[in-house]
Amino acid sequence: xxxxxxxxxxxxxxxxxxxxxxxxxxxxxxxxxxxxxxxxxxxxxxxxxxxxxxxxxxxxxxxxxxxxxxxxxxxxxxxxxxxxxxxxxxxxxxxxxxxxxxxxxxxxxxxxxxxxxxxxxxxxxxxxxxxxxxxxxxxxxxxxxxxxxxxxxxxxxxxxxxxxxxxxxxxxxxxxxxxxxxxxxxxxxxxxxxxxxxxxxxxxxxxxxxxxxxxxxxxxxxxxxxxxxxxxxxxxxxxxxxxxxxxxxxxxxxxxxxxxxxxxxxxxxxxxxxxxxxxxxxxxxxxxxxxxxxxxxxxxxxxxxxxxxxxxxxxxxxxx
Length: 320
What we know:
There is one protein chain. This protein is an alpha+beta fold. The chain folds into two domains: 6-195 and 284-318, no CATH class; 200-280, no CATH class. Helices cover 29% and strands 21% of the residues. The protein contains nine helices and 16 strands. Strands 4-3-5 form a three-stranded mixed beta sheet. It has a three-stranded antiparallel beta sheet with strand order 7-6-16. The longest helix is centred in the N-terminal third of the chain and has 19 residues, at 79-97. The two termini are 27 Å apart.
């Protein structure tokens, strides 16, 4: 995911996402407290805007959460990780529904995983899982049923429960990535992420490709000899704070956007006629690491402990 934040005036709406990486760049608009309905206003259905048609489909919450978990997390993850993901998907949907209904034409959320979170209906689940449909549907449904109606609460409202695929040992704060402080979205350890088989990945760029990509963003780049690229500063998580392209300094997050990198935790190395970028982890690093959640579950942590770890200062409550 699988994977909602307007940095005051800066829109972060791009998203590098497979079903494992969700909510990659989050738009956020601060609303007055009185404009956000009470969490007590429960509705057992949800209206989802289907991004492929623009139509709005109303469905029951259970089906939505099953389809969202199926789209955002592998079904072979530990049951406690799947439960955590179910609570997160439900929470995020409620968070969005209290804020974006008007801009979504009356829908509570969209299935556009580049901005919101994935939802795949039963037909697409059958297509994806093929002969394993019944087994995987049972696994996901049982996890969802175990926690259905539970949400992550912060000060009486659903939390901004963002999540991502994996980091490289530590998550990052919302403030450092999206420019806004959120008390429960801070950097925490995520030790298991480094053990992922795809924790590290390389991508090579030729000088011409870099010149084109940077040029589209008003950054002058000639070649690796005349325009060196170097990391200037990092946050504690490893996420690059700033990077120099020649004499031009930009944020690591912006560099990642321009080059469509897996993460903003990277190092650069010159090659013959270009650069090799080595990325660590996959995603924006804010909130719950899905791989980290699975690792914690396999070490004996419950879904409540997972959620408490990745969203410190919040509480899991029943949405009633």
